[in-house]
Amino acid sequence: MEQFLKRVAYGIFLYHKHIVIVFSLLTIISLITIFNMEIRSDIIDVLPAKNKAVAQFKDVMEKYGTVDNVVVVIEADGNRIDEQIGLIEDMAKRLIASPLIEYVDYSPLKFQSDFFLKRFPLFLDENGLKHLTEKLTPVGIEHQIRYNRQRLLSPFSSPFDYELIAKDPLNIADSIRNSFVRSNKNELDLSMGYYFTPDYSTALIFAKPKGKSKDMAFVKNLKKELDSIAALAMKGNGNPMNVSVGFTGGYLLSENVREIIKHDIISSSTVSVFLIALFIWLAYRVRVKILLVFGFVLLTSLSMTGAFAYLLFGNINIVTSVVIIAVMAGLYVDYSMHIVKRYSDELRKYNDPLQALEMTIAKTGSAIILSGLTTSLSFFSIVVTKFKGLYELGIVSGIGVILCLITTLLLMSSLLVWISKYGLQNIQFEKPGKNALYGFDNLASLIAKRHRYIVLTGIVLVIIAGLGISQLRFDNNPDNLAPKDSSAIALGKKISGKIGKKGEPLTVVIKNKDNSALTADFDILEKVLPQWKKEGFIEDYHSLGMLMPASSVQSIRIDKRKEFMKSMFSLDSIEQTVTNILEKNNFDYDKSYLHKYLTGILDALNNTEFIGLREIETIPAPMISRFYNKDDSSVAAYLYPTKRGWDKQTLDVFQEYVQSKGANWILVGKPILIDEIKSPIIWGSVLATALTIFFDLVIIYWYFRKVWYVVLVLLPVILGFVLTMGSMGYMNIPFNFINIGTIALIFGFGVDYGIHVMQAYIGEEKMDIGNALRISGKNVMMCAATTIAGCGSLMTAKFTGIASIGPVLTLGVIACTCTALIVLPSVICLNKSRFQHEGFL
User: Fold this and answer.
1) Contact 315, 786 (CB under 8 A)
2) Which of 528, 414, 604, 336 minimizes the C-alpha distance to 21?
3) Coil, helix or strand for 512?
4) What tens digit of pLDDT does each residue of 569-604 get?
5) Checking CA distances to 495, which of 125, 301, 682, 754 falls within 20 to 30 Å?
């Protein structure tokens, strides 16, 4: 291989200018390409692909508007949101007028179409019906009209009060509201005709934008539009003190994620690049031109990797976007450092750029190629995991490592030749001396004298670490993977707390193209939901029943209404009573409207028609879409957990019941999703690690051709892996759905260090461990430092799941470095006689 690499070096020497020009053009093209690449901010995109539970969960989120929605949150200090009716109305009107908004729902009474007017008695419970009939008696009519008069004469009355009384002089809406309030305890207060939290601190407005939450250009414009509407509404209402307007929902979460990703990319990249440059300068004292060379090679490698990612996937997910730059930066520089260090030493020795390049490529190039292959294969091994985010990361990073090898061997070498041929003979400011060895002579001396004690200490530490592995845990809480400092998430949790909804809901979905069969299934569901609540399986539930009572409930209410109607007066008598009392209280009224109003009430009370799903389709109320999807012929109900959360026994009860109902019934939710994907992801990570080890074995054996050498090369990474797992157990660093997939990378990174030490020991003319540490020790330590800089920078990420990758890989690199520089040389010293009788093939 050395002869082949020397020929490669000769070709690089001859055509170094052409190589630099070609790579410069490729860099420009790659940069132009990646500017067209978008980042997918949907967290669902990183979940396992082709998984039934994930597909069902995503389908329900899309079809029932839990993703494509905006919730406007108006908060008032002092729990006096009812004093901000004008602001709520103004905000709603501006939203309705926006070209980006499809519809707005800010009051349950604003969608009182003919449908509700003709059927409103069906929405009244027994108390509501009783309250209504009392309102229609002469005593009830007189009481209501007198109350209306007092309300209008009050100094606190408003034009809004006049409008309500004119439209509904008997306040029939009050009976409907009371029924809604009784059916929605501990949730939103509808008594004022708006969506208020029970503590009267917050009003909610629900809006459905016209675009999709995945369209980041639309989402960005939507955010600007919402901010503008909020500012104008606040200004139009005198900028009330202690009142704030915020936004949450799927669109705002997408925008938050986009901003957080942008922050994470910038912060982690800046930290890693700065630390890497600092480490290089401190360790090697290279000239500024060489630092610029490092930067250019890094830019070329990253841009070409991004261009390949664009060609393969079109855009990348949130995991790949953040991790690729931070982690790859450390890896790319590792290979370049080996080339620069060796070329600098050889150039001083021979004072001939060609000879220096041939020795560098022949001696160091082989180790770089070997370590690059093992690292790229460790990334490619991740593709067997079920986690889509890591699958994409594995493909992009695996290709990136290969591109790094190419740019390092060709571009870095060409730039070094070009620079050294034109006067910069000394790549480094300082000549290598005793201080430049960073104590590796002392380390070699210690190992030579105390190698037995070092090996024994290593065995003890591995045993202790093995005990710590038993304390490892898996964090399956998705909230612990979510972005920090997300205003949309924080506001959503705050509202959930105010309306008494804590914990992730489960969703029962029933699909059936047969309308009558779907109605029958819906009736069954409406009977079992109160039973589950009574038995303590759930704290509460929301279903279509709050907007369309089940057929069995409608039948009972119609029968009850017939009994009440027996004692009712005729239309003429009620109309005469109302007009007399209105005139007595000096009210002006429209006789034709009053006749139509009272006729509608009595017709509705006499109406015995049932409300079905076909009738529901005509309702303009946006809330219907949360429970019924006519295009999909399905209904949905939401189950909320008790204080103990979703335990396995409860989930089993629900799943067994849903499965007993056939394929038309499904149960989805984050708890179900987590339970379904946990096992495949863990086993996929184990398989990826096994494949990485297998590929390492094959490649290392192919290069070293001796089983004994293979064992020694893999010894540091195996011991480092055990020490890493044990340290995580003792330090209470859990695995999660994201960082568990990076276990294979520890073997990809860590095996490099063993390769470089072994190559330096058996590949040089003098087989001496002290010489091996002097040749490779500093480079291995610096490779580890730059990799730690890249991986460690991920800990600055606001995306908690991505940040969790940082500690795992950082611990892995530290452990593998220590074992490669201390334990491996000690083991070699123990077997020195064996090496003296063997030659390296």
Assistant:
1) no
2) 414
3) coil
4) 678 888 889 899 988 888 888 889 888 888 888 888
5) 125
pLDDT for residue 109: 62
Token pair, residue 742, equals 């990076």
Number of residues that this document lists for the chain: 841
User: How many Cβ atoms from other residues are within 10 Å of residue 500's Cβ?
Assistant: 15
- Output the pTM of the full model: 0.75
Neighbouring CB atoms inside 10 A of 642's CB total 16
Q: 238-266 b/e with 16+ CB inside 10 Å = b? A: eeeeebebbbbbbbbbbbbbbbbbebbbe
Task: Say if CB 786 and CB 706 are below 8 A apart.
Answer: no
Quick check: 693 and 808 in contact, CB under 8 A?
A: no
Give the pLDDT score at 642. Answer: 87
Q: Phi, psi (5° rounding) for residue 589? A: -150, 160
Report CA Rg, the chain: 36
Residues 532 and 166: their CA atoms lie apart, in Å, by 43
Region at 11 (left for phi over 0; alpha for psi -120 to 50; beta for the rest): alpha
Q: Provide the pairing of β-strand 665-669 with 628-629.
A: unpaired
Collapsing DSSP to helix, strand or coil, 534 comes out as helix
- d(Cα 841, Cα 838) in Å, to the nearest integer? 9
Q: For residue range 82-114, what is the model confidence (pLDDT) as tens digits?
A: 888 889 999 999 999 999 998 888 886 665 556
State whether residue 102 is helix, strand or coil: strand
Closest CA to 91 of 219, 212, 240, 268: 240
123-155 in b/e form (b: 16+ CB < 10 A) is bbbeebbebbbebbeeebbbebbeebbeeeeee
Tokens of 141: 């009519």
Collapsed DSSP state (helix, strand, coil) of residue 286: strand
Spans of the chain below 50 pLDDT: 429, 432-437, 839-841
436-450: burial string, b at 16+ Cβ within 10 Å, e else: ebeebeebbebbeee
**Three-state secondary structure of 308-334:** HHHHHHCCEEHHHHHHHHHHHHHHHHH
Q: What angle do CA 218, 222, 227 make, to 5 degrees?
A: 155
Give the Cα separation of 798 and 173 in Å (integer).
48
Residue 299 CB partners (closer than 8 Å, separation 6+): 27
For residue 231, how many other CB atoms are within 10 A of its CB? Answer: 12
- Cα–Cα distances (Å) from 726 to 89, 151, 722, 732, in that order, read 59, 72, 6, 10
Tokens in use for 737? 């759905």
Other CB atoms within 10 A of residue 452 CB: 11
Residue closest to 587 by CA, chosen among 149, 153, 144: 149
Which residue in 323, 246, 244, 791 sits closest to 486, CA to CA?
246
